[in-house]
Amino acid sequence: MKTTLQYRSLNADVASAHLVQEHLNHLQSLTDIEAAQVILERQREATPAFRARMVLVVPGPDYHADAVDHTLAAALHKAVENLKRQILARQAKCRVKAKSNLQLGPISRRWSSALAGHRA
Description:
Strand 2 and strand 3 form a beta hairpin. The longest helix has 29 residues. The chain has a four-stranded mixed β-sheet, covered by helices on one side. With 120 residues, the chain is of the alpha+beta class. The mean pLDDT is 85. It has one domain: Double Stranded RNA Binding Domain, CATH 3.30.160.100. The protein has three helices and four strands.
């Protein structure tokens, strides 16, 4: 996974980079991430002042999350939880779709064609 981490109006520190990497490793365990772009920002005039933006490049549509909070760690946590919810929702949707696309077995096909001929 290629990771791009950008800081805006913040000092880059090892602790926040380590925290971002831990969260990305957790998300990597849920889905195959090709690349991740993370922007950590402090907006001096806005309240809450900290914003975390994340984009995960995956096979299929990408995942996007944007969160704000009063601390950088809380904003990052909210963004990660949003991404986690998106990933799990897409996986559940794929499972439901796969179940609905099951093929009828040979016995079921015979009965459905027999019933269709019986109605005619």
